[in-house]
Structure formats: structure tokens, C-alpha cells
Specification:
single chain, mainly alpha, Four Helix Bundle (Hemerythrin (Met), subunit A)
Length: 168
């Protein structure tokens, strides 16, 4: 169950982020704005810029898969500079996530998940997904969307949600 609530939705939202970023690049090009301006924009002075929002969203998704399955995932050096670098980071993360299957997550609900800043405390796999991984992932995707929207990029809820699996 944890696979279904994390991996496929994370992949979908990362793909949506790619499309949103493409709209940001088109906007920058049409307004003769250097894409660097958008990449380094933030909503508040004490908030991470778009660049870091992208990195954290990607890290949250792949680290979630790693922590729940125990499988190693490649790390990224956080040295992206250009629009193309950030797109490649997202595409790489999608590729990593697509290598996981539901079977990899067997028993993940009961795993003890910890990280250094939790100072020896832990969450079960299920608690980690529900209380940390999912909210943190969507926080950074939403903030990336909001930074671009705030800067005038013509995106809306349909862009954020992406294609829905509607049925007739």
C-alpha cells in the first residue's frame, strides 16, 4: 500500500513539475527574462528559492523510496545551475523511482524510519509516509509552483494537478 500512496503519485507530480517549469521557461523567453531570475526567486526572504524547492522535492521522493525499501538510490550533488540541469535532476529522480515496484515495499509499514535531526527517535514506515514524506514532498512541489505563479507564469490548478485518470 505504501508504494501506491508514494511512488506513482510522486512520479506524476514530478512530471507535472517538469511541465510547469517548461511553462516558466517559455514565460521567461517571451518576456526576455533570464531563467536564472526565476530559478533564484523565492516567496519570502527567509524561504528557499525555486532551485532548492526542486532539489528537496526530488530528494524527498527518492529518499522515501530508499528508507521504505532499504534499496540504495543515487545521490545528487546539489550542484545544478541551469534550467536544463534542474530538468535533468527531476528526470533522473523519475527514472530512479520507476525502478521500484510494489514488491520492494513489502513490510515497509512497520519499518523504523529515522534521520539525524530526529535525534534517535523514529516513525514507523506508515507514519513516516503519512506525517513526513507526503506532506514534505507536496509542500516543496506547491512552493515551486507558487514561486512561478507569483512571478507571473501563466499556470493554474490544472497544471499543478496534471492529467487525471478520468473514466467514462
Amino acid at each position: 500500500m505504501l508504494y501506491e500512496t508514494t511512488n506513482p503519485p510522486f512520479v506524476k507530480m514530478l512530471r507535472n513539475l517538469l511541465e510547469i517549469l517548461d511553462k516558466g521557461a517559455q514565460f521567461a523567453d517571451s518576456k526576455k527574462i533570464d531563467m536564472e531570475v526565476l530559478l533564484h526567486s523565492r516567496l519570502a526572504p527567509d524561504q528557499f528559492p525555486l532551485t532548492r524547492q526542486i532539489q528537496i522535492a526530488c530528494d524527498t521522493a527518492k529518499l522515501c523510496a530508499h528508507r521504505l525499501t532499504g534499496k540504495e538510490v543515487p545521490s545528487h550533488a546539489d550542484n545544478e545551475k541551469t534550467f536544463g540541469d534542474f530538468k535533468a535532476r527531476i528526470e533522473s529522480t523519475i527514472s530512479i523511482l520507476e525502478k521500484f515496484s510494489a514488491a520492494d515495499y513489502k513490510g515497509a509499514e512497520a519499518k523504523h524510519i529515522t534521520q539525524p535531526r530526529w535525534e534517535g527517535q523514529y516513525l514507523t514506515g506508515e507514519e513516516y509516509v503519512l506525517h513526513h514524506a507526503i506532506p514534505n514532498f507536496y509542500f516543496h512541489i506547491t512552493t515551486a509552483y507558487s514561486i512561478l505563479r507569483h512571478n507571473g507564469v501563466d499556470i493554474g490548478k490544472k497544471d499543478y494537478l496534471g492529467k487525471l485518470p478520468l473514466k467514462k
